[in-house]
What we know:
Order of helices and strands: HHEEHHEEH
Largest sheet: 4 strands, antiparallel
Number of helices: 5
Strand content: 5-15%
Low-confidence stretches: 2-17
Structural class: alpha+beta
Amino acid sequence: xxxxxxxxxxxASLSASxxxxxxxxxxxxxxxxxxxxxxxRNGSWYSAEEASTHLHRKxxxxxxxxxxxxxxSFIDLAASKSSMSGKPYMVRCGNSTPVESRSWxxxxxxxxxxAAGRR
Length: 119
């Protein structure tokens, strides 16, 4: 009986610390919107807010099709490259060298999970 109570307690604490994919995706959008970085798609640079609006549209489309089931699938299917040209999106923060958005978002996701006690 004690084992069952301990197991249930452990499972409850794990589920409480785990974030849902939509919560993590919301936090990725927030990270982008508050980053002050610029976002390149198809050769043009956009503000973080404009990029967020664009990625929200892509995310909503994927969600309706049941394809954005995790933060990683959102990053891979919506936030990494242009659906039209196939060219990778880039992120430039300040005067730093632009990086592919996939790497930027994966780093932000790792930060989000570390803050929540997940890996």
